[in-house]
Write a structure and sequence with these properties.
Blueprint (H helix, E strand, L loop, with lengths): L3 H20 L1 H7 L5 H22 L3 H8 L2 H26 L3 H23 L5 H21 L4 H18 L7 H25 L10 H8 L1 H16 L4 H7 L2 H12 L7 H23 L6
Helix pairs in contact: 1-11, 1-13, 3-5, 3-9, 3-11, 4-9, 5-6, 5-8, 5-9, 6-7, 6-8, 6-13, 6-14, 7-14
């Protein structure tokens, strides 16, 4: 018990590091923006797998991966997770590089609402009055943004649902498999088409990886670090912090993405968007308050 405050202190730093890195990811994609989104994602998959293999070797942690490979059910779920995270990465990269970073941040703001909806639809979970009210505000926000712009916020919904389903599938894998182990499988599932696409670009002389200077080369290679490090920090935070604090910290990433979209990318924020975001933020406050009201489980 005496070590709990110290554990929470380090856990908070790990959590801030994880969500802080996820929050400033748009800056990374801008720095490699001379490449097309598909090339960036292909490199992210390949170099993430390379970095994960190096980590597994350095920590001598290959055994859990070998155990996981023998679990057919877990492997099928991780194949699905790999496809979902690829959709998420590609959508987010496209959004940042094509003037839709504000909408991308909206996707991660409404992600908790989507996760709650998935719990109701797929797990038959029951919601209390506060949760239903939050869901109503979230739906109203989507309707406001849809009617204000004349089209459905496809990017935001794609990000929210792909990441919500990704979390749902990953949760079914179990808690014994670590973040690096599962990420290794997910990227291994995708590495052949990703590497094949990179080779095709190189054969046509269209790859930016080797033709745009040393700085660009190393920025692309560092995609593996950019992907894996926040996952490791998140894992360290999750083991030290209560769920309510993790639930609150997760909004740091879309807040930072939102700020970058307005201040660095100079995206427009008309009144109807402020109204839509305001409704989402009300929903977030309600969900956070509901989470905070839950009785703590004592060990």
């Amino acid at each position: 018990m005496d070590n709990q405050p110290a554990g929470r202190g380090s856990g908070l730093l790990f959590g801030l590091g994880a969500y802080g890195i996820w929050g400033i990811l748009p800056l990374y994609f801008i720095s490699v923006g001379i490449a097309a989104p598909l090339e960036i994602v292909a490199n992210r998959i390949v170099w993430s797998l390379v970095f994960c293999c190096l980590l597994l070797t350095a920590t001598r942690n290959w055994h859990p991966l070998l155990v996981l490979l023998r679990d057919r059910g877990a492997m099928l779920r991780l194949v699905a997770a790999g496809c979902l995270i690829a959709v998420n990465w590609l959508t987010f990269t496209y959004a940042v590089l094509n003037g839709h970073a504000v909408e991308a941040s909206l996707g991660y703001f409404i992600n908790p609402l989507v996760s709650t909806a998935l719990g109701v639809l797929l797990l038959k979970e029951k919601l209390n009055r506060i949760q239903w009210t939050a869901m109503g505000f979230g739906l109203l926000a989507v309707l406001v943004l849809t009617f204000a712009h004349g089209n459905v916020p496809v990017i935001a919904l794609t990000l929210a649902f792909s990441f919500g389903l990704y979390g749902f599938v990953k949760n079914r894998v179990g808690r014994t498999a670590g973040a690096v182990t599962t990420l290794s499988v997910e990227t291994a599932v995708l590495v052949l088409p990703a590497a094949g696409y990179m080779a095709w670009l190189l054969s046509r002389g269209e790859a930016t990886l080797l033709s745009s200077g040393q700085t660009h080369l190393w920025l692309m290679v560092s995609a593996g670090i950019v992907t894996a490090v926040p996952l490791l920090l998140f894992g360290a935070a999750a083991s030290r912090l209560p769920l309510t604090m993790i639930g609150t910290l997760q909004y740091l990433a879309p807040v930072l993405q939102f700020i970058i979209a307005l201040t660095v990318l100079n995206e427009e924020m008309p009144l109807e968007r402020w109204i839509g975001f305001g409704l989402v933020w009300v929903a977030i406050v309600l969900l956070t308050l509901n989470l905070a009201r839950r009785p703590r489980v004592r060990s």
